[in-house]
Write a structure and sequence with these properties.
It comes from Kribbella pratensis. It holds the Pfam family HTH_18. InterPro entries: AraC_XylS_family_regulators (IPR050204), HTH_AraC (IPR018060). By secondary structure, this protein is an alpha+beta fold. 42% of the residues lie in helices and 21% in strands. The N terminus is likely disordered. Strands 1, 2, 3, 4, 5, 6, 7 and 8 form an 8-stranded antiparallel sheet that branches.
């Protein structure tokens, strides 16, 4: 992860969330509009979801840089994208977070897009331009959220094993601290079968998924101002050194830098646990 050169001034950003979140299980959405378009350079932190960012800006918008490659406009950010940052003019965009299970059902097996930032149309396929045009033409954020629920809901055709979906949910609920062997026993599978089915359908191994979920939990504790030693203990790391290694592996930096990541600063607003009033 690269250091943020010009983080957004969140007091100048309007954030919209659905009035009734959870209409489509495994899908979360937030809309962002900068009152006065401004240049930003944002380091993005790994998250246990496949993220679709639809660029609705009238001007140049954002350019994503990952592994030395640049991607302009709307894009999918996969699981474990590595060193990714977005730079450009922050005008208006819609961010949709998809659980790996939903991503696999909508875009096919291994749609976790592990380690990639891909062009929107390349992943979405036929109808991508029309979908984006509908979102641009919508009169409100509520209408845009409804369009996503409608269109994405029609794409959920690919089957994902119930056992794989169950283990993903258990991994989230356990904040990445449950043992893979125990999860395999829960669904009556061998460890090998779990490993093969999970990776082939979600594009990530059960162990790596648990590490990602645990890292995300730790990152939010860091952003909340918790001491590094406390975060390490509460997140299930052996010690502070273990936490440092994991943060380095996922974000390429230190816990102190992750604590100041600009996206984490507004997570409670953009991704509320309870519906807005």
């Amino acid at each position: 992860m690269r250091l943020t050169v010009a983080p957004p001034d969140w007091t100048q950003v309007e954030i919209a969330v659905p009035r009734t979140p959870g209409e489509l299980p495994g899908v979360r959405m937030a809309g962002f509009r900068h009152r006065a378009p401004a240049f930003v350079d944002i380091a993005m932190v790994a998250h246990p979801s496949v993220t679709l960012i639809v660029d609705l800006s009238d001007d140049e918008g954002l350019i994503y840089d990952a592994a030395g490659r640049s991607q302009k406009g709307s894009a999918f950010v996969g699981l474990l994208p590595g060193d990714v940052h977005a730079a450009g003019t922050l005008g208006e965009c819609l961010q949709v977070r998809l659980s790996p299970v939903v991503a696999a059902r909508a875009f096919g097996p291994a749609a976790g897009l592990t380690g990639t930032v891909a062009p929107f149309a390349e992943v979405w396929g036929r109808g991508a331009e029309r979908f984006e045009d509908r979102l641009r033409a919508a009169a409100s954020w509520d209408e845009r959220f409804a369009i996503v629920v409608e269109v994405l809901g029609r794409r959920l055709n690919t089957s994902v094993d119930a056992e794989v979906a169950h283990i993903w949910q258990r991994t989230l609920a356990g904040q990445g601290r449950l043992r893979v062997d125990g999860l395999a026993d829960e669904v009556g599978w061998s460890r090998k079968r779990l490993w093969e089915r999970f990776r082939s359908q979600l594009g990530i191994t059960p162990k790596r998924a648990a590490q990602l979920v645990r890292f995300d939990h730790a990152a939010h504790l860091l952003a909340a101002g918790e001491a590094i030693a406390t975060v390490a203990a509460e997140s299930g790391y052996v010690d502070q050194s273990h936490l440092h290694r994991e943060v380095g592996a996922f974000a390429g930096t230190t816990p102190a830098v992750v604590a100041a990541a600009p996206w984490l600063a507004i997570d409670d607003v953009a991704w509320p646990v309870t519906p807005r009033r």
